[in-house]
Design brief:
Blueprint lengths: L2 H7 L22 E2 L10 H11 L3 E4 L14 H6 L10 E6 L9 E8 L14 E3 L5 E5 L2 E10 L11 E9 L10 H20 L18
Antiparallel strand pairs: 1-2, 2-3, 3-4, 4-8, 5-6, 6-7, 7-8
Length: 221
Amino acid sequence: MNALAITAAAIFVSGCSNNTDDSDTAGQDAGTPAAKVCDGTLDPAASAALRRLAGSDRFDELTGTNEAGEPNIFSLTRAVKHLHDEYNKRSACRLYKSGDNSGQPLLEVRFSASSNHPSASAAESGSDRVSYPLGVYALAGSNGADLFFHCPTKATTSGASVDDTNYVKAEMSAIANNLDGNSVNKDRMVVLNSMARAVAKAAGCASTAALPTQVPEANGS
């Protein structure tokens, strides 16, 4: 897990957006509803999961630009474009609860090309981690969740840091103790799986990714 990404992200909190949705009813907080964050990659189940994790339905994404000189706000197109690039050039969805001035993002998700994936035996559920039968490897732990899926991609950008690969890694930084609800592990995986399905479709590998529309129960349940 890349818990450092959450800490580093906190310094940018002053750059968070504060968008409103004209269709919202009066009295609701400013910000973007769950269904519209992360470039609309959250399906209804994932939107509900995010609301449970946050205890809120309003979110802000980081504004400004990243090291690629592109907007920090998550984009499916940019996520696929930069799969093979270095960490700080990848498109990340970094979410804050709207109105939360702590500087601590609720979660961060980004995608990267990978030449391999952890072995299934290493994903056995334990006291602080839970594995799921998704893709080729899926694990939720105390600091977030990882999901690897089969998705052959080529390094098409100049200066790519990763060569052609057969897998994509979906990585979520989201500390379990900072989240709400009674299903933190599964809810994080539901959010990650929904975003991964959208990336797989955009990358042209949806048929091989082995990412179902509904997240199954954890291994060993």
